[in-house]
Amino acid sequence: GYPGPLHVLELKDRLQLTPEQESRMRTLFEAMLAAARPRAARLAAAEAKLRRLFAERAADDAAVRTAVAEAEAARAEVRLAHLLTHVRTRDGLTEAQRQTYHQLRWGAAKNH
């Protein structure tokens, strides 16, 4: 029930998006990518740091806890950027468009 902007744009004709809705979906998608890039880079760096701790035999309780906390915080930021975009996308559609989207994407009507 929470479509992403890319899938909405792919189905724009069948969803009968208005020009304003199409513009909003493009903006949401571009903003999500812009927000996700630096967060994804932080996640990759945090995961690499965690791997290095073990590869360099520098892992101890405190170092591993810190590195895992940093990696999970970065992962949460990436996920939030993605999921909040889905919420904003859903809010930009009418109820009829949401129903149509769900039917097209998943093949069944869904109550919201």
Question: Could you characterize the architecture of this molecule?
Answer:
- With 112 residues, the protein is an all-alpha fold.
- Helix content is 80%, strand content 0%.
- The protein has five helices and no strands.
- Helix 3 runs antiparallel to helix 4.
- The protein is elongated.
- 16% of the residues are buried.
Summarize the amount of helix as a percent range: over 70%
Which structural category do the helix and sheet elements fall into?
A: mainly alpha
Distance between the termini: 7 Å
Query: Number of DSSP strands?
Result: 0
Q: Estimate the strand proportion.
A: under 5%
Count of runs of 4 or more consecutive helical residues: 5
Radius of gyration: 19 Å
The sequence of SSEs as H and E is: HHHHH
Biggest sheet details: none
Shape descriptor reads elongated
